[in-house]
Amino acid sequence: MKNRTKKFLTGSIIAALSVSLLACSNDKASSGTKEKEKADPAKSGELTGKVTLWTASLAGEPFDTYFANIEKKFEEMHPELDVVIEDVPQNEMEQKVLTSLTGSDVPDVVNLNPHYMSNIAAQGGLLDLTDELSDETKKSYVDGPFESGMYDSKLYALPWYLTTTVAWYNGDHFEKAGVTELPTDTKGIYETAKKVTDATGKASYYPVINDGNTIMEKMVSLSNGTAIVKDGKAQLENNEAILEFFTLTQKMYKEGIIPQENAEGSIKTGQELYMAGSLSLLEGGVTFLGPVESGAPEVFKASKSGQPLNATDAPVNVAVMNFAIPSKTKNKEAAVALAQFVTNAENQLEFAKTAGTVLPSVKASLEDDYFKNPGDSPKALGMLEASKSLLRAKVLIPPTENSADLRAATKNIFVKNLQGKVTPEEALKELADEWNKSFEKTGEKVTF
Question: Which listed site, 103, 225, 317, 326, has its alpha carbon 20 to 30 Å from 390?
Fold first, then answer.
């Protein structure tokens, strides 16, 4: 076994996350030898040569030990195979993969997010996996994360680890306000947040904006199946749910229910306000509680979680990290086998336990007691709520060439609306105009 290469060291686990696959499946005897090997090429016992896997921003402990064990186990299964796992900083990954494809030193398996995956697949840089997996294996994934590996109706990536949104709230503040349930629509958010603000004398609700992506995702959730963009054209004019969200967030900001700092909009700012006891309700991933636990233990103890603040049947966003195989791999069979092995139920479950704040993408892993009976700590209960929301989770905004422009327009216009510089109706018209201009430039005919 080779020691894990630390050639590309990085700081910490990335914020966007995603998940995985059940590899070791038993096919029926009637399916034939070829189908059996497709279901689990790692069992053929004939893999030789060298296979290299790149992870993204996962260097250092506890991940070094985890991947050293992955190398060891896979090499024990295939004594003639040399497994090398290297870590690459997330912000360098896409360019490193593209650069490698112009030469002869190409990795065999790479850890990508859906945006990077689709960009590289569009340039012919990834292996089409559609016919490399059995139907049983494909069905072992959670639907939404699995679909994130599709591009142009073909499969280019296997989901690995995930994170999804939950609602976080200060139970002490809610109890003081006499609130016993989380809201499931925008009107309910307003009524709940107003009660909490009246009881605490402080702002209570923080709609996370980030770079605009979180507001776009919220808009899709609120629309609950009605497209906000159809064939590259914005569909916001008659969307009553989004208009209500823009109207009531503006009202809450004016009334002090939403803090002035919300104009900055990052999850970090919301986290700092929450830790200071100056905020009571917001949405975020399980990673949100990490700094709270260490920096504000009393607030951590009071923290409770629940489902996202929208209709119980509305889609919620999932952040996915996956594994893809460069089209120029020199060891296709070993690459497919390794990708399936790393993302099988057993290894995904172990990775989720190692990371502590992510979810697996394989259904079998999610059935483990680690997720079904996690304990009663705030973080454990947050993981439970996150695993429940996976049933309706998907990547809500597809990767597009103009994604940066869409996010920037959304953030700027949402903040203008929040601060009352435009009416909600004006804000949505301006946003539709900006989105349409952007889509006209790129010619993309996407629907979401």
Answer: 326
DSSP character string of 317-341: EEEEEEEE-BTT-S-HHHHHHHHHH
Looking at the fold, whether 246 and 308 belong to one and the same domain comes out as yes
Q: How far is CA 400 from CA 116, 289, 428, in A?
A: 10, 31, 21
Residues 201 and 278 in one domain: yes
With contact defined as beta carbons under 8 Å apart, do 366 and 116 qualify? no
Residues 308-330: b if buried by 16+ CB within 10 A, e if exposed: bbbeeebbbbbbbbbbbbbbbbe
Q: In this structure, are 298 and 354 located in the same domain?
A: no
Residue 18, pLDDT > 80, answer no
pLDDT at residue 41 greater than cutoff 70: no
Query: 2 to each of 43, 66, 82, 202, 215, how far by Cα in Å?
Result: 21, 13, 8, 56, 45
pLDDT in tens, 131-148: 999 999 999 999 999 999
Residues 6+ away with beta carbon under 8 Å from 50: 81, 82, 83, 84, 331
> Do residues 142 and 393 lie in contact, with contact meaning Cβ atoms separated by under 8 Å?
yes
Please give the helix or strand (H or E) that residue 173 lies within, else none.
helix 171-177
Report the candidate in 105, 68, 97 with the shortest Cα–Cα distance to residue 85: 68
- Once rounded to an integer, what is the mean pLDDT over residues 72-88? 97
Q: State phi, psi for 428 to the nearest 5 degrees.
A: -70, -35
Bond from prior residue into 62 cis (ω within 30 degrees of 0): yes
Q: Chain-wide mean pLDDT for the chain?
A: 90
170 within 8 A of 280, measured Cβ to Cβ:
yes
Q: How far is CA 233 from CA 224, 227, 230, 440, in A?
A: 18, 10, 5, 9
pTM to 2 decimals? Answer: 0.84
Name the least confident of 13-22, 90-99, 225-234: 13-22
List the domain range (segments joined by +) for residue 284: 166-315+397-442
Task: Compute the distance between CA of residue 399 and CA of residue 95 in angstroms, rounded to an integer.
Answer: 17
Confidence of residue 6 (pLDDT cuts 50, 70, 90): very low
pLDDT band for 9, please (50, 70, 90 cuts). very low
110-128 pLDDT tens trace:
999 998 999 999 999 999 9
Return the CA Rg of the chain.
23
3-state SS of 373-424?
A: CCCCCHHHHHHHHHHHHHHHEECCCCCCCCHHHHHHHHHHHHHHHHCCCCCH
Residues 236 and 256 in one domain: yes
CATH of the domain at 148: 3.40.190.10
Q: Report the alpha-carbon distance of residue 112 to residue 323 in Å, rounded.
A: 6
In a domain, 245, yes or no: yes
